[in-house]
Amino acid sequence: MNKTERMKELIALLTEAGKAYYQEDREIMSNYEYDRLYDELVQLEQETGITLGGSPTVSVGYEALEELPKEAHERPMLSLDKTKDREALRDFIGEHKTLLSWKLDGLTIVLTYENGTLQKAVTRGNGVVGEVITNNARVFQNIPLQIAYKGELVLRGEAIITYSDFEKINEQIEDVDAKYKNPRNLCSGSVRQLNNEITAKRNVKFIAFSLVRAEGKNFENSVQNQFEWLREQGFDVVEYRVVTAENLDEAMDYFAQKVEKNDFPSDGLVALYDDIAYGQSLGSTAKFPRNACAFKWKDETKETVLREMEWSPSRTGLINPVAIFEPVELEGTTVSRASVHNISIMRELNLGIGDHILVYKANMIIPQIAENLTRSGRLEIPSVCPVCQKEARVIKTNDVESLYCMNPDCQAKKIKSFTLFVSRDAMNIDGLSEATLEKFILKGFIKDFGDIFEISRYKEEIVNMEGFGEKSYENLMASIERARHTTLPRLLYSLGIANIGLANAKVICREFNYDLEKMLQATAEEISSIEGIGPVIAGTYTEYFAKEENMQRFRHLLSHLEIEEVKKEENQSLEGKQFVITGSVEHFENRAKLKEFIEERGGKVTGSVTKKTDFLINNDTQSSSSKNKKAKELGIPILSEADFLEMAGGQSL
């Protein structure tokens, strides 16, 4: 085992031991053993010059941003030309030594290191401009924060979340509509969080697949040498095989067998010429580089018969068409249903009951209809909701047609809405599963959210319900009692207003200084002017509170709650001022604490220096960092913490 692998092993052991001791009040190793392993890790980090992300020898502070700054790539990141034909891939490779590796299905990230330290991480974005996610990258599970090489290093890789972590995270989400569709979507959202504490909990991993630049290093014109050097620096590098046209089949068969057992998402392979100079000499088309080619797996398709179209309502009123077909074996599992997503896709496929259809698993995971061989079109779109039997209507939004239930009192909407309302991030009421909520709604115990807090009126009936009893009832009442004391962001999120998650709820509440009446009277223009909140969210927000019935229900709910008061600092010396924080801090525990200090005094903190910025806080006021340069260009004062505290009327902490 090499030193880097041993470091990874030690980090895993020490992290598990620390979690058991500090979070679970149990010991899985003695203090002596912990200290011995910790010292070994410190020694290895000193010997290699590498410090891996997650190492207990470093502490990465969490930080929340108002927005993700955007930044142009120094050269455009092109897509790869693709083929599903093995022989076409063989022709591309020819006699050239080629690296054949996984085509990872996550989010492409560009990392920059200077003086051995991670300085910057930027997403691929549209290939020309990406988003700066440096704070988030620092909490990726396996990313090196320090490396032995001290020159400027730029490399690319894929941020991914494994299938097993994806399943664990989805299991914790109680609202069915809020569950993530696949690991890639979850990864994209995790990498682009404004609060990197959330990113840290998602177990994002970084797999390097391309070295862009390493000043002063000679790789003897070989991509393979680059890969192995990156591995020596502590990076997890994409698995590859060295091939030519002659031995391609052996490598292809290896990858084809392994992909079925992989815990990470991959949607194909990448073939990249090893000869760097030759590859560069080929140049690129307007869309693709000529030194690489992607191979996409031919999806396994099976013919089957469409037996039924199930119409599945959600809490937003959207009724999703789900195709039910004769069961078939696909990629090792039996499947019998696939989401058709919307009316537009259903019409495009010209589906009809009894049609012969081809089905496959997209990226070997999600069942989809590939083709309709019959195209009978014998399928009626319901004019009534399958749950409440009231009007259902096809509505066109952004050229996509979808079916919606028009009844605001539909039980399906209610059940899904109540499920969100009681979920962990909302009102956090244990004992009210979706099945229990359905029973209570059908029996008429609860008609709106406020009724939950009056459920004791039905004590006798609840205690005698199947699956309930005196103890279950008492536990439920205790949980409801705890939920009476809540925060304004949780309350706003719990209402289930379309597009308003907990993060957006916090932003809106903070903008109005947690003044509920101001929030209720806010116009769409006021809401959409909040950074990070656009016109779509502003529209759904104001439409919700404009409806009299919603306001009546909200007031009813409010009468049962005690909203936690947000302590406001009397000193509002920073009101109307906009700050950007960069570099390390000395007087505060971390930058998040400094941000909190500013906001308590009426100020605002953003992630990038713009014309709207009033002050840049950086203890290294003479630094040549990009933020300092930008501030100087715009004539924005650069303050040390001491300068800032004096201005804010605070004191050294």
Descriptive notes:
The chain is of the alpha+beta class. The protein has 6 domains: 3-52, Helix Hairpins; 70-296, D-amino Acid Aminotransferase, Chain A, domain 1; 302-405, OB fold (Dihydrolipoamide Acetyltransferase, E2P) (Beta Barrel); 411-483, 5' to 3' exonuclease, C-terminal subdomain (DNA polymerase, domain 1), CATH 1.10.150.20; 488-563, 5' to 3' exonuclease, C-terminal subdomain (DNA polymerase, domain 1, Orthogonal Bundle); 578-648, BRCT domain (Rossmann fold). 35% of the residues lie in helices and 22% in strands. It contains 24 helices and 26 strands. Strands 14, 15, 16, 17, 18, 19 and 20 form a 7-stranded antiparallel sheet that branches. A 5-stranded mixed sheet has the order 3-13-12-4-11. Helix 1 (3-23) packs antiparallel against helix 2 (31-48), helix 12 (411-421) crosses helix 13 and helix 16 (488-494) crosses helix 17. The chain is globular. The model is unreliable at 21-26 (pLDDT under 50).
